[in-house]
Amino acid sequence: MTDWLEQLTTQHVRDLTPYESARRLFGASEGNQRVWLNANESPQANEYTLQSSLLNRYPDCQPPKLLAQYAQYTSLMPEQIVTTRGADEGIELLIRAFCQPGRDSVLICPPTYGMYAISANTFNVGVEKVLLNQDFSVNVSAINSFVGKVKLIFLCSPNNPTGTIMAQEDLECILTAYSNNAIVVLDEAYIEFSAGCAKTALLAKYPHLVILRTLSKGFALAGIRCGFVLSSVHIKSILLKVIAPYPVPDPVAQIAMQALSTVGIELMRANVKCLSAQRTLLSEQLRQVAGITLMGDQCGNFILFNSAHSKALMHYLVEKNVLIRDQSKQVMLDNCLRISIGTKQQNAQLMTLIETFFSQQKGSHTTNQEVAR
User: Fold this and answer.
1) What is the pLDDT of residues 251-297, one digit of tens each?
2) Is the sign of the CA dihedral 303, 308, 311, 313 positive or negative?
3) What is the DSSP string of 148-178?
4) How many whole angstroms separate alpha carbon 20 and alpha carbon 26?
5) What is the value of pTM for the model shown?
């Protein structure tokens, strides 16, 4: 960076480390034979149609038909929903709306999704941390000790990358403690894979609860960047003060509405059922591999596991053009890797490579023992 540009850049931005997304780590996917099992994307895309008659016009800030369809899907009112550029924009809107830079803080519970902290740091907002318990449940008493000290509490259920569901009694205890003094944000990006655990019914009871949703996971639409913030009418009115003028491009709204049609929802549920079955099968296969220990739970579209050979296994898989996610930099996740559930063929390819790798490790260990003798 040139001297003048460095001087213009704010200190806290100079010190930032950008979020290491799947694409930043391994580059573009186009034009290669890589198997992408590292971004919790759906392995299959669905077909959609587009009309171009309104592409010469700016889109609605909040497309009414899209809000109506998502409201029907969630059994809420359109007045409770803001549609955003992915759930990530929802995170940023909440921080911008409720946190004073250089003064306020948010609370996160690692290991969890990295963008909560990244977004807070970007806006020069402090980040308090309460680690999950050893079983990856939330530490309720420790979280509640920050009452009056933070403006936002970010919780994730199913949690990425541990795959665990937050107990409703824990959530309600936190909501009660933070009543009238902070916003409690529940990220349900993966809820389609554990639909019975959705907490939208609590919005009527707790006006300071906010729920984040996305079409990226269960709906297989990561490429269109469409998310939703579910909240009280009053919180929505505040978020609309800080949102961009045209956050949802018309083609995005068109595709999202098709995905949220009766046919689209049936297709989503069929795909989720298929991926969940593949997740169960892959989990069972991984449990049979000596040297692998499954971690957390499998309530999303991914599996987290631990292995003393994680670095070597990761390197081996990358060489074979099969990409999974290294989570070992996160607290409590030493030697942990995360697998996004792929197609039946992709999962089989991955398991063949994993079994081959550990077979080679076993053979190498045996040879070393013989040499030692």
Assistant:
1) 999 999 999 999 999 999 999 999 999 999 999 999 999 999 999 99
2) negative
3) TT-SEEEEESSPTTT-PPPPHHHHHHHHHHT
4) 10
5) 0.94
